[in-house]
Specification:
CATH class: Mainly Alpha
Bound molecules: protoporphyrin IX containing FE
Radius of gyration: 21 Å
CATH superfamily: Cytochrome P450
Organism: Streptomonospora alba
Protein name: Cytochrome P450
Number of helices: 14
Family: Belongs to the cytochrome P450 family.
Strand order of the largest sheet: 1-2-8-5-3
Keywords: Heme, Iron, Metal-binding, Monooxygenase, Oxidoreductase
GO molecular function: heme binding; iron ion binding; monooxygenase activity; oxidoreductase activity, acting on paired donors, with incorporation or reduction of molecular oxygen
Length: about 400
């Protein structure tokens, strides 16, 4: 039996990674990847087992003897038990935010953007809709002023690309510089503003929770950049699906289907393809021995199409329930922004469903990124005369 290769940046894999994931799941579910120097996991049960077992699989590099720069100490990098107070502070702040208001404002902002775009012959869904809307959503949630979008989006892009540093080492340094740039932005919020929102809530609660201010600052940066870039990719992916399969939008006009449907769209082709953890001790997964200090890459997106967990995994079933997908992660590091992200996507789908059909107006172009799956360009039009047959096939 040949061992399947896995090249996440191969154009064919970027276009449609699901056949490569299926091959790995079937023939090499615990695959050693020379170039990335890590084990790649593609079966649902193995992925969940790793994400749950934070004792054995560390996020915090200090647990395997590696240093971590201070700006990286955040909710994303700490592990239990040190993670506990910060994570609780963050989740309490999320639940204290005015999420109904966020839903309403996201819907209004989506309507306003789409109305303005409807006056143009063609536009780019990513640049003209997903990016400005995501920035508004994240500023609204955090309770901070909107930074100038161009330079922020550039810095966010550099950080997002540096998540692929295992494959493309040259992305690491621009990512580090962009993190510094965004840390300066966060420092300005701490100096100037205390507007209501998630950040003010965290700052207010931090002293009593015993959470150092640096952790709150670094977490604010992670929330802002991570929340923005995943929302841009998610809105792009969802809108592309709706443009390519117009029948979907009709089903999504039903409120109940919209709730299950948004989750299913994330399972089916979500933005976050994987995450990594490092083994703190030798352990066996699926009959393969992982040594202490070795890294495992958990492929959420491969797990989300595992036929042992999801009946008809390669079909988009908008009423799929239950749907325990890993698109928002799992375990102590599961996505802290799941609820606001679902609320925002719900509002976007609602806004799109209330308009004439959006159609492709040129070739769709994928981003050349492995960890985050998204579109670089999605030319679109509301005007039938400007529509073309969509390209950039979806699975
Ligand atoms: C549809 C949009 C989104 C998707 C698909 C998504 C997905 C994910 C996934 C898979 C993880 C787990 C990563 C891991 O285990 O290493 C994660 C973590 C995280 N997400 Fe999201 N996310 C989305 C939107 C957001 C938003 C809007 C925010 C901020 C408001 C956010 C904040 C975070 C944070 C802070 C973490 C780290 C949590 C921790 O490590 O404890 N996400 N996200």
């Amino acid at each position: 039996m040949p061992t399947p290769g896995y090249d996440p940046l191969n154009p064919e894999t970027l276009r449609d990674p699901y056949p490569a994931y299926a091959l790995m799941r079937e023939h090499a579910p615990v695959l050693w990847h020379d170039r990335m120097g890590c084990w790649v996991l593609s079966r649902y049960a193995d992925c969940v087992a790793v994400l749950r077992d934070h004792d054995t699989f560390a996020r915090d590099p200090r647990r395997v003897g590696e240093a971590i720069p201070e700006p990286s100490l955040s909710v994303q990098s700490l592990d239990p038990p040190e993670l506990g107070p910060l994570r609780r502070l963050l989740m309490n702040a999320v639940h204290t935010c005015d999420l109904n208001g966020l839903a309403q404002r996201t819907r209004e902002r989506s309507d306003a953007l789409l109305s303005a775009l409807a006056t143009q012959t063609t536009f780019d869904v990513v640049e003209d809709f997903a990016s400005p809307l995501s920035l508004d959503v994240i500023c609204d949630l955090l309770g901070v002023d909107r930074p100038e979008r161009g330079s922020f989006a550039e810095a966010s892009d550099a950080i997002m690309r540096s998540m692929d540093a295992g494959l493309l080492p040259e992305t690491a340094e621009p990512g580090r510089r962009a993190r510094q740039q965004l840390s300066a932005l966060v420092a300005s919020w701490f100096a100037e503003s205390d507007a209501p929102g998630l950040l003010a809530e965290m700052r207010r609660g931090a002293p009593a929770a015993g959470v150092p201010e640096t952790y709150v600052r670094n977490t604010a940066r992670v929330l802002f950049q991570g929340g923005y870039s995943t929302m841009v990719a998610a809105i792009g992916n969802v809108t592309a699906q709706l443009m390519q399969y117009p029948g979907l939008l009709e089903h999504l006009s039903e409120p109940e289907t919209r709730t299950t449907g948004v989750d299913e769209l994330i399972r089916y082709d979500g933005p976050v393809q994987g995450t990594s953890r490092t083994a703190t001790r030798a352990v066996t997964i699926g009959g393969t021995r992982i040594e202490a200090g070795q890294t495992v890459l958990v492929l959420h997106a491969a797990a989300n199409h595992d036929p042992d967990q999801f009946p008809r995994p390669d079909e988009l079933l908008l009423d799929r329930s239950p749907n325990p997908h890993l698109g928002f992660g799992w375990g102590p590091h599961a996505c802290a922004g799941t609820l606001p992200a679902q609320i925002a996507l719900h509002a976007v789908v609602e806004a799109l469903a209330a308009r004439p059909r959006l159609c492709a107006a040129g070739a769709f172009v994928r981003r050349r990124t492995a960890t985050m799956r998204g579109w670089q360009h999605l030319p679109a039009a509301f005007i039938p005369a400007a529509c073309t047959a969509p390209s950039g096939r979806h699975p």
